[in-house]
């Protein structure tokens, strides 16, 4: 990264959204995209983009595009945070709707056999017979476990998702291995499933 610490990181990952002010002293409530929002807690630098546009939030008086977080904690099923440049409730309310990004490099190290969704998206999926099933395009959280959404390699662009993708539960019985460096997930899954 350049010497400008406000530059949007090249490895930025969207991790949540500001949903409103919390209290009167400038705290704000965040809806995290993960059930365990460790990325929000591990980074003291949150980058913002607007809710509708791809660009950064317009600079307003005392509202930077980079928030330097002074505190982040879990509170009533959400994350409540404070930042250096958000002095009061009005400033916190002005952030409502902003999308929060953090550098992927600031995520805590995943445990053995644990993976961040963002690291799985884009990986090739191959079954035990060596047949390419497609590429991971997303995941679904069912509450019990995650499910890989895999775009079939032969799917035409106009096909509906139920015809263009495989859904494979991301559980040990079906997942043989995940090789992040090699870019492949090996599965026990047939073409007829």
Which terms summarize this structure?
about 190 residues, mainly beta, 6-stranded antiparallel β-barrel, 6-stranded mixed β-sheet, 12 strands, elongated
Describe the structure.
With 193 residues, the chain is mostly beta strands. 9% of the residues lie in helices and 40% in strands. It is built from 4 helices and 12 strands; from the N terminus they run E-E-H-E-E-E-H-E-H-E-E-E-H-E-E-E. It has helices at residues 38-42, 89-93, 117-120, 161-164; strands spanning 12-22, 27-32, 45-49, 66-75, 78-83, 99-103, 124-127, 132-141, 146-151, 165-169, 175-179, 184-187. Strands 1-2-5-4-3-6 form a 6-stranded antiparallel barrel. A 6-stranded mixed beta sheet has the order 10-9-8-7-12-11. A hairpin with a 4-residue loop joins strand 7 (124-127) and strand 8. The longest helix is centred in the N-terminal third of the chain and has 5 residues, at 38-42. The radius of gyration is 20 Å and the shape is elongated. The N and C termini lie far apart (45 Å). The model is unreliable at 57-63 (pLDDT under 50).
